[in-house]
Amino acid sequence: LEFRRVLKFRLNSHFASDEDLKITSFDLDFSDSGREGCTVTTLTVTAEPRHWKEAIQLAVNEVRRMKEFGITKSEFKHYCEALLRDSRQLSEQAGTVPSIDNLDFVMESDALGHVVMDQKQSHEALESVVDTIELEEVNSYARSILSYISDFGSEADLVREGEEARFADDMGPTRATSIVTCIPAYVDKDGGSIATGGSHARGQNSMGQMDHEELEAIMEQGGELPVPEDSGDAFNVPENAVEFNLDATEIADVISEVRSLPLEPVEDFEVPDNLISDKELGELIALSEPAFVPLEGQQRVNSEPDPVTGIVQKKLSNGVAVNYCKTDNEPQAAMIRVVASGGRGVEKPMAAPNGLGSVALGTRALSEVGAIGQWERQQVELFCVSNLIHFVLETTEEFVVLDFHFASTGGGIRAVMEMIHLLLQSPRWDESSLTRAKQAYRAHYSSLGKSLERATLNNALTAMVGQSCCFLDPVPEELDAVTLKGAAEVLMAQLVSRNLEVNVVGDFDEGELEDTILKLLGTLPERSVDWSEWVDHSIEFVRGSLQQNNTKFLLADSDERACAYIIGPAPYRWQDISASGGEAASSSGSDGLGGFMDFLGDAPKERQEHPLFMSVSLSLMAEIINSRLFTTVRDSLGLTYDVSFELQLLDRMKKSWYSVSVTSTPAKIDDALDASLHVLRELTSRRVSQQELDRARRTLLARHETDLKDNSYLIGLLTHLQCGTVPRKDIRCLRELTSVYSAATVADIYEAYNRLGLSDQEIYTCTGVSGESLGEEEAGRQKQLEAAAAIAMASRNGNLFEALRIALENGGGKK
Fold first, then answer.
1. What's the 3-state SS for 674-728?
2. SS3 category, 352
3. pTM for this structure?
4. What is the pLDDT of residues 173-202, one digit of tens each?
5. How many CB atoms lie within 10 A of CB 444?
6. Is 395 helix (H, G, I), strand (E, B) or coil?
């Protein structure tokens, strides 16, 4: 079924090159269904309401192209190679599959009547037949399986034309059995989706499901398809909303119209074995003369692993730092994480070409392009397919991160390093990729008000850090101000050799890894970040009035539910408290919450000087608070079905915060919020017991031991070991992690706890409530809140006339 992966690849290419983002997401599934008692094929397309026709026709037309012309020789070759490499890798990892996964596989296979084979047997079977598979045979199965989409409404003509000879011998053509739609009741004036308070049950704006025979009979007779009766459920119509009407006939007609669209075979791209040839690589090495250099404080280059952790630390002559650790968690597979300090924190704190949102848009745009060096997107993607490379480029508030997961044998290490070299040295930019990135972020922003949880958290964060901050998603005005030049400038300024740390974890040959890193990353030009030009945001927690710090969000929705967030300042995870003698001074001391437990602050100074002291103390404290929240707010009081305490611990910026999230019913949410806040504050009156500390320690250490079997967790531990902007993290943090946990005391918990902001002036809360009918008073209040936010945003961007217009429209001129 390689054609299915090829089809997904082609649709993804359309998605990446579609400037209007007509398709939001898509999926083609071909699998046995125990419920249906047969194999079921499903094509799922998600799109904005205004683009539903184009999205369906684009997807169906690509299915037609696949059905008519099949996959190309190049696609067949590279996907067969990928299939074999993937199977070989899985066979090597057979001993690492959890027992529960194996049990699920056996039960499912037995229920579906499949032959049960383990990973090694499956790979041996594949190797024995793969060379016998012909391209035409694959294409015949593609024609059979996809004909239910490509020839919808004309199946009888297909059979009469004698086309069945082109189908798979044991299958023949297929036909659609149902078309299911899920659509909004209302859209905005431009056809975009909006939040509604209406019922999402099947009603007049949902076609539901209709048998294929019934649909075909009605269409042949020229009759109109029936529309389900209105369910009669009451709902609130959003302001400026337009009813979205769509019936079965329209959908059927749109699919049928695709047959009249032009159809041409896809171009068969040449896919290189290497992105950088041996000749080009030789020239780079001769020009740069790369070498490993001693680490700071060392006299010579050391390639010996750390005796406790097994980690090797190296540095290249151009400044690139390297940490690697060999594991057998995933045989013949590895992960690489390339980290650059900066992230969204260096965006100019305003709407500007390189202002708020520029790094976020730059990383998204660079990913959208997909082309690097001389190679086009399709060539790079097929190159990744052949080498089982999965790549993600993203940014946080503090760092730009490139993550690669790949097969480490058969030239996989060189393939990944070639991609990293070209991505950093020869990226390709174009305006259409930035346009798509902006549209994606606009869609994300517009959906903010439709999610109760996201909107509630965003309101609390906005109250805490203010509007112009890298911790918040960019708004449309900020997105519009960003230019391609500005986004590329601020992003590429961070991706320079002396600002890069490369972390590698997995099953690989150490000699091959070091040699490849030396040749492909050591030949990057030596550059540094000019930190005088790119300054981190000055993040200050806003001290507003109690009313400003404690807000409410109301959402008209068919589902009555509620959630709340409590947010407040937390200490920096790498904070060195030894200089102050361990006295837990809190800014909330004026309220009697800080200094209360100072008599416990006699922890040994050596432990307080350890880089992990605050991080471990915070983790233990969070585990204890979570346990208390669960047993008190949920079990004892029955006010919630989910409550949790989390820490947002930053590495570069000396700012952090905690958050408590609680979900409940609208009637109980205020009590749940008060109870959660009480649990937070009661550590001053009901002190942590030794038993609680021991239980938290056992839980965290057991979790650590389990997570060590996961490469993604391991690579997180390696990250920042040589990062100049996180100076306190070094190899000692990994060597002594368990011993720091084991030595922690109750006094350490309070060193962390007394540095939380827990006073009324330091806490920010937001309660979100949704329901079908919100009272007029609540609806009016919500409208005022939205208007106030819009006025503030317009004023901040210098659009005073727009701010005045909004104020007048919302009664600003009334006394």
1. HHHHHHHHHHHCCCCCHHHHHHHHHHHHHHHHHHCCCHHHHHHHHCCCCCCCCCC
2. coil
3. 0.81
4. 888 888 888 888 888 777 776 654 333 332
5. 12
6. strand
